[in-house]
Amino acid sequence: MISKFQIAYKSLLRKKVRTLLTVVGITLSSLVLVSLFGFNQGYEKALNHDIDNMGYQIMVMAKGCPYEAATLMLQGGKGLRYMDPGMVRDIAKRPEVQATTPILMQAFFDPNKGESGGIAGYFGVDPSSYPAMKPFLRFRKGSWFVSDTAREVVMGYEAAELEQREVGDMTMVPEKNVPLKVVGILERTGTQDDGTIFVPLKTLQQIAGTDKITTIGIKAKKDADLVRLENELYQLPDVQVVSFSQVKQTIMKLIGTARVMVLSIALIAVFIAMVGVANTVLMSVYERKQEIGILKTMGAMPHDIFVLVWTETLMLCAGGSVVGIMAAMLCNGITDLFIRRLLPYAPSGGLVAIDFRLALYTLGIILVVGLLSGLYPAWQAGRMRPLESIRSE
Amino acid sequence: MRRKPHDTRIGMLLALVPALLLVVLAALPAFGAVGCDLNDADRDVPRLFPGATRYQSIYVSIQKKGGAALQHRIEGRLGERHLALYAPIDVPYTIYEIYSGPKKVGYIHGVNQKGQFGGIQVFIAQDLSGKVKTFYIQKMTGPAAAKMRDPRFAKHFVGVTLKDFDSYDPITGKGTGRLAHVPNPAPEMETDFFGVLRGLKKNLVLMDAFIFSGGNP
């Protein structure tokens, strides 16, 4: 005996183009919806990963815009102002502080990058405290500097790739023309460290002609009251305190606005697709009026007709959303690249994380909304009077 | 028994959708290791290829064009064991196809080459016969890099073809022909001078493998 699914499938195939267009509409709306859910989940995860990999929870830097400073820090840019290195000792004395590390971010103009020159950024770090804060950094080859005044560099994987450097090669600080030896190349981390060139702090201070620093990285003790520590640090003169939990909150707030807008568009897309589903099924019901009438005269109950028409809706929605979700999963990388181009700051790692749970969740939403939109056509079909239907043109 | 053709059609339909998706995705570029792209293609293309009205970026990898066998052939032609540091076989090379109106008129392509103090990015614009129209060093590090990036130095390479390297070896610096007579604008950066020449040869060999001998992708 032929099943309800087979009848519904055959009905849908009667108007192939109409069915295909409806499925495409559902596919696109599910693709947008699941990608947006994936972005919701992935962005925060990637941001957390970036912040955890900073190795310290709080940064203290000379007064300026904290968000610009944080972005510069995350992306490895030039610091805004300089600070007195003596401040490191003062901060280290506080009971909540486990460790501190002084950092100098310095940028030099390289006239031989592209048509109009570019900036080469260097990260001056203290060899006695910085590596301990980042124990997860692994060397592809080589190791950290031999001394705090060594004329050496350690390169992140992508920096070494771009500069075509191996351990033992020389590199040169543009603008100052100071040669430095590459002593270590880090494994890829998927964070901003990949593009960073690390130099011993004192060496970079000497090259830049300053004895100051731009930043102090602070690692708090596990049970420390971070809010209290932040408030205490705010009392220091002429400094800006950047806590990564604050940075995260601010970035998430900024992203939240964009997320609401995209979610609205996705919901409109889902709504339009569902109107399309209702229209397709309703048209199909009206075209089969006589057929439905015959079914009823043969003993089919309103419930049977209702279920039959509803099955068509289910098949349209299930087919479209499964394809849409699969497409979203397969196009994950492309969506990621697209979003990265649009966002002012995108953390490293995958921005769109679509997992099985999310796929099922989206499928559920589309099916529920789809079945709701199929209620009216199914109800219309179920209440048709057999003889009137058979007589109709 | 009557159900069979019907079931087969459903199966075919279900199998076709992911298959089509995979075909579409396979045609898209892969993003892996650092390639060599123009910093600002919209600005650089008309400058490097005067007369160009538009361009199209295509992505080619040795993996797709011939795999390990092609890589060995290219390394053999270059006389070097590694094409570039950290460049796996599937690294995507960006080739800019240049158009003047509807007509394709040439290509622009760049390579990374190891230099004394950093990576050198050597770009060439070629006409459809493979002859160099413009030579451009996008990036170079060193005290005399400006001399190597000088347009007067670049002019020495206008008209060069892969054939010019038949009589000149950029690894030993020995040979005859026009390349042997190219003066080093910065004698203190001899390693980089030969690095530039090796980059030029690598660029020409890759373009020959990808486009001129290997067929247009």
Structure, explained:
Chain A has 393 residues and is an alpha+beta fold. Helices cover 55% and strands 16% of the residues of chain A. Chain A folds into two domains: 4-49 and 252-391, no CATH class; 64-237, no CATH class. Chain A has helices at residues 4-14, 16-52, 66-75, 86-92, 130-133, 157-163, 201-208, 226-234, 244-287, 289-297, 302-330, 332-342, 356-373, 375-382, 386-391, and strands at 58-62, 97-110, 118-125, 139-142, 152-155, 170-173, 178-186, 197-200, 215-220, 239-243. In chain A, strands 1, 2, 3, 4, 5, 6, 7, 8, 9 and 10 form a ten-stranded mixed beta sheet that branches. In chain A, strand 2 and strand 3 (118-125) form a beta hairpin. Chain B is α+β, with helices and mostly antiparallel strands. Chain B has one domain (32-212). Chain B is 36% helix and 22% strand. In chain B, helix 4 packs across helix 7. The longest helix of chain B has 23 residues, at 4-26. Chain B is globular, with a radius of gyration of 21 Å. The model of chain B is unreliable at 1-32 (pLDDT under 50). The chains are: A alpha+beta (393), B alpha+beta (217). The A-B interface holds A 6, 9-10, 110-115, 118, 157-158, 160-166, 170-172, 174, 177, 179, 323, 326-327, 330-331, 333-334, 337 and B 3, 6, 10, 17-18, 21-22, 25, 28, 31, 33-34, 39-40, 43-44, 47, 84-86, 112-120, 138-143, 145-146, 149.
